[in-house]
Amino acid sequence: MYLSKIRRIIDSFPDGTILWVSGDLPGSTHDTAAARIWNILAALRDTGLIALGDKGHHGCDQTGRHVLTPYKGRNKPESQKDANRARARLCGPGERANAQLKTRRILRKLRCCPHRAGRLAKAIHVLQNYEITAG
After folding, report:
1. CB of 48 within 8 A of CB of 63?
2. What are the CB-based long-range contacts (under 8 Å, 24+) for 26-30?
3. How far is it, in rounded angstroms, from Cα 77 to Cα 40?
């Protein structure tokens, strides 16, 4: 997700509630490089969780147990198509976290330092957690 000229990683629960917002990185940083910088794969291994990646994340996890990616290519067998559809259904609610950040007016047209944008994203995360717990 891009906010201003930064790369941001948003981890969320399956229901779309934001779990973690990364620090800021240059916008040219690829997702897999950002995941390595923030040691996300190691955290997944330690906790036994999995992540749903897109086609650009093939090979990110050498074991294939912590990052699930869709099958690539044309003319896939029906079983692979079904697996890709099931994976896409699982990704949908998690994409809600990015949508929640994008709905905040303050993030629509940022004209500030990338570090400030990162702080704003983290502040929104805190506010959303407060709204959820306060009811």
Report:
1. no
2. 26/114, 27/2, 30/56
3. 32
Angle at 37 (CA atoms; ends 116, 119), nearest 5 degrees: 15
Q: Is 105 helix (H, G, I), strand (E, B) or coil?
A: helix
Q: What is the pLDDT of residues 64-114, one digit of tens each?
A: 777 888 898 899 999 999 999 998 888 877 777 777 777 767 666 777 766
Residue type, 87: R
75: left (phi over 0), alpha (psi -120 to 50) or beta: left
In one-letter notation, the amino acid at residue 102 is K
* Alpha carbons 55 and 58: distance in angstroms, whole number: 6
